[in-house]
Structure formats: structure tokens, C-alpha cells
Amino acid sequence: MVVGLLALASLASIIFASAAGSVELGQRDWLAALTQPDSANGQLLWRLRLPRAAAAWSVGAMLSLSGCLMQVLLRNPLADPYILGVSGGAAFFVLLGMTLGLATGFLPALAMTGALFSIVLVFGLARGSGPWSGTRLLLTGIVTAAGWAALISLLLALGSDGSIRGMLFWLMGDLSYVQLPPWSAAALLAVLGVSMGLSRSLNVLSMGESTAMLLGVPVNRLLWLIYLLASLLTATAVSIAGSIGFVGLIVPHLMRLLLGSDHRVLLPAAALFGGVFLVLSDTLARTVLAPRQLPVGVITALLGVPLFLLLLNRARLRSHGS
């Protein structure tokens, strides 16, 4: 029921985003543009707004689903998709490409390469010998992210004045000129399908690793699989739109608060609501100062900070009440 309503909300948010903007499309104009792609409004709809809304929904779904998986992996409600340095690797490779003057068409490939390199680096350093250690993975990811941040600061310090604006927009998350690769939708659906197949094991793992082992769950293999799935989603999202914060942190919190911790419902609900959240945030980024456009990461931060504080305060009040 809830998943169906969120699916309808996803469709409604994309329709709303395609109609809103510096050029408003009423119901009649929107329907005419939908059926006449060669008209001026049709090109605005089919070439700009619908692709951008679809990309925003896909990135939001990826980040939210990745956030759910990261929070189970690290058993930490403050974990988000960027905590293990994946976005740092992607950002460094992209900014390096901008510094070297590479064409913008190469930037998504550079972002994916940097993210995958960071995944392999953290995976190799954290695995070591002996049993799984979530603490070792977390510390390795944090240190790796700090190293990428230092390299990014170096590139910004050395970059030309003309390139710094584009670098900062990418670091804040930007959907202005995004193109959604066809394989990204396949990656999202594949990871969601695998995650749904693991949902019962994720529910058991949430009770603790010892409990999961006693109940026959292959904990070590499951944890590494979760890490790889979450990292793949994060790498794909970052390669499309840059680093967009708070989506993977806020949305899983909110869905868990409203729907509970059953991952059979939580995973698809978080993915759907994450898509809606980012589509609406991007629409606000396009329209609040139209015709100027803001990086969508600024909007998600402005919405995410007070919402996160509200959720923390509500959790504190509930704990005092119990």
C-alpha cells in the first residue's frame, strides 16, 4: 500500500518538475508538449525537463537505497553513502580532469573510475586478515576520505579562476547538464532486486552479528556484499550528478521512523521517496531564483539540516518518554 502510494508520488513529482520552471507549462500546454515533441514546448519538455527529472529521481533513489544499506552495514544510523570515501575518489578524478582541460563528456567516466578506485582501495586496506571488522572498514573509509579531501583542496588551490566555479558546482551536486546513462537504471534495478532478496537477512543482521551467526546467516559474506552494493550505487550516483548530501542520510531515517525497520518495505520505500525528495529539491533549485539556478546540493542541505535536527529531537523525546 505505502510502496504503491510512493510510486504514484514519484510519477506525480516528475510530472510537476516537467511543468514547473521559468517557463510555466499549464495542463493544456503540458499535454500539447507531450504529444508534439518538435514544438518549442515539446523540446523544452523532452530534451530538458523530463531527462533532468528522471536523472534526479534515479540519483535520489540510488543515494537513499545506498544509505539504507550503509546503515545496516555499519550498524550506525548516522552512516551515509559518502562515509567510506567513494565520493572523494570520484570528486578528485573529476576535478583532475577539469584541471587538465578534458571535455565534459569524459567527466562521468572519470567519476566512475575514481569511485571504483576508492572502493577497491578501501576494500583492500580494510579486509586485511582475520574476521570481518566493521570498525576497521569505517576507520579505513574515513581516513581515505580525508586523504581525498586533502587532494581536492590541493586541486582547488592550484586551479585557474575560470575552472573553480565549475569545480565548486560539481562538488555541491549539480543536475543542470546531466545526462542519465541507460545502464544506470539497470544498475539501480539490479541492486534493488538483490537487496530485496537479502531483506530477510538484513532484518536478522540488524539484531546484531552474533544473533545473525547463530541463526545461520553467512555474516562475513553478507557484509562484504552489502558494502559492494552500496558502493556501486554511490559510485553511479556521483558519476551522474556529483556529491549531493543529506539524501542518503535523511530519507532512510524518515522512512524507518514512519514504516519501521522491516527491510522488505523499507528498501523500496526509501528508494521511491528518495527519488521524490531529490526531484522536488531540484525543481526548487531551478525555480527559487529563476532564471538563475542553484546547485541541488545546496537545497538538499538547507532542507536536510533542520529535518535531521527535528528527527533527532523527536527520537530524544521518545526515548525520554519510554
Describe the structure.
The structure is a single chain. The chain has 322 residues and is mainly α. The chain has helices at residues 2-19, 27-35, 40-74, 86-99, 107-127, 134-158, 161-172, 182-197, 199-205, 209-214, 219-241, 247-259, 263-287, 296-321. The protein has a single domain (2-321), classed as ABC transporter involved in vitamin B12 uptake, BtuC. The protein contains 14 helices and no strands. The chain is globular and about 65 Å long. The protein starts with a helix and ends with a helix. The model has no long low-confidence stretch (mean pLDDT 86).
What is the β-strand count?
0
Element-by-element helix/strand order: HHHHHHHHHHHHHH
CATH class: Mainly Alpha
* Overall residue-averaged pLDDT value: 86
Give the tally of structural domains.
1
Uncertain parts: none
Task: Describe the structure using short key phrases.
about 325 residues, mainly alpha, ABC transporter involved in vitamin B12 uptake, BtuC, about 0% strand
List the topology elements.
Blueprint: H1 2-19, H2 27-35, H3 40-74, H4 86-99, H5 107-127, H6 134-158, H7 161-172, H8 182-197, H9 199-205, H10 209-214, H11 219-241, H12 247-259, H13 263-287, H14 296-321
